[in-house]
Design goal:
This protein is mainly beta and 288 residues long. It folds into 2 domains: 80 residues, Immunoglobulin-like, CATH 2.60.40; 178 residues, Glucose Permease (Domain IIA), CATH 2.70.70.10. It has 3 helices and 22 strands. A hairpin with a 2-residue loop joins strand 4 and strand 5. It is globular. The chain starts with 8 loop residues before the first helix and ends with a strand.
Length: 288
C-alpha cells in the first residue's frame, strides 16, 4: 500500500517502460502508403499526438478529428481504456489508411488520505443540488472547446513543488474506497504561483466550488483542456486569452483539500488524461 503523498516507484518504472516501447500496438488495416504517424505512445491515460497529410480527413471510431495546418491531430484514452479504437485517415485524392490502436495497460497505486472533514467525503443531502449544478458548469466548460492548436506546443509545469499525488491512483478517503484520482498534485505553500502550462483561453474561473474550491479551466483547443483545483486566488476571467506561462492564480487549500497543493487535471473531450505524459519523465517526482 502507498502512504499519503508517496509515489509508487514501480508504477513510474512501468510507465516509463511503456512509453519507450516501439509502437507495436498498432495493427494496420490497409496496405496503402502510410498516412498516419503516431508521435506519442498510446497507453491508458495518454493524450496521443499524431501526424498526417494536412489535407486528410481523420476520424477516431467514426468521430471527426481536426487536423492542424502542419498535419498534426490529437486524441486521448481514459484511465481504464481497454478496447481497440479505429483510426482512419483519407485524403481528397483517395489515399487512405486505417489503424486499430490498443492502448497499453498501466498499473495504478492505492493512495490513502485520512483526516478529511466527513461532510466533504460524504456530503450532506442538502448540498446535492449545489454539487450537481457545479458539476454541470464544469462539464459544459470542457465540452465547448474551440478549434485551436494551442495543445500542440510543449507543455510546462504550472507550478513548482513536490509531486504529492498522481493520476490514476485509487483513493481511499477516511478508510472508504472512492473514485480514482484523475490529476497530478503539486504540493507547495499557499500563495505559490500557478501559470498556464500552454497557451489557451479561460473557459471557467470560479472562486469557490464545493469540491475543488478555487477552480480555473483553460481550453487548449480541439477538445484538450486543463483544470486547476484548490486555488487560493483566481486571477483570470472567462474569455481571457493566455500565453504559456501567464499567471492564473496561486496554490491554496480550498474545497476538499487537507493541505495546500495544486491539483492539475487534463481532458480530451470527456476522457480524463494524465498531464505528466506531456512532460519530461525526469520531472515526474518534483515539478521544477
Amino acid at each position: 500500500m502507498m502512504l499519503p503523498g508517496q509515489i509508487c516507484r514501480s508504477g513510474l518504472q512501468q510507465l516509463r517502460h511503456l512509453l519507450l516501447w516501439p509502437l507495436l500496438l498498432l495493427a494496420p488495416l490497409t496496405s496503402a502508403t502510410e498516412l498516419i504517424e503516431l508521435l506519442t505512445t498510446p497507453v491508458q491515460g495518454a493524450l496521443v499526438i499524431a501526424r498526417t497529410d494536412p489535407a486528410a480527413s481523420v476520424a477516431l471510431d467514426g468521430s471527426h478529428l481536426p487536423v492542424t495546418a502542419d498535419g498534426r491531430f490529437v486524441f486521448g484514452f481514459g484511465r481504464d481504456a481497454n478496447r481497440q479504437s479505429l483510426l482512419h485517415a483519407r485524403t481528397p485524392d483517395g489515399r487512405e489508411q486505417s489503424l486499430l490502436i490498443q492502448p497499453a495497460a498501466r498499473q495504478y497505486a492505492v493512495e490513502r488520505i485520512d483526516g478529511l472533514p466527513p461532510a466533504t467525503v460524504t456530503p450532506p443531502p442538502e448540498l446535492s443540488a449545489r454539487i450537481s449544478r457545479e458539476a454541470a458548469l464544469v462539464a459544459a466548460a470542457r465540452r465547448n472547446t474551440r478549434r485551436s492548436d494551442d495543445w500542440a506546443m510543449p507543455f510546462i509545469w504550472p507550478a513548482k513543488g513536490r509531486i504529492s499525488g498522481v493520476y490514476g491512483s485509487q483513493r481511499v478517503l477516511n478508510g472508504e474506497p472512492r473514485r480514482p484520482h484523475f490529476g497530478v498534485d503539486v504540493a507547495a505553500p499557499v500563495g505559490t504561483e500557478v501559470v498556464a502550462p500552454a497557451a489557451g483561453m479561460v473557459v471557467l474561473a470560479e472562486a469557490d466550488l464545493y469540491y475543488s474550491g478555487g477552480t480555473v479551466i483553460i481550453d487548449h483547443g480541439d477538445g484538450v483542456t486543463s483544470t486547476f483545483l484548490h486555488l487560493h486566488a483566481v486571477e483570470v476571467s472567462p474569455g481571457q486569452q493566455l500565453d504559456q506561462g501567464t499567471r492564473i492564480g496561486s496554490i491554496g487549500a480550498t474545497g476538499r483539500a487537507t493541505g495546500p497543493h495544486l491539483d492539475w487535471r487534463m481532458n480530451w473531450r470527456d476522457q480524463r488524461v494524465d498531464p505528466r505524459l506531456l512532460l519530461e519523465p525526469e520531472s515526474w517526482q518534483q515539478a521544477p
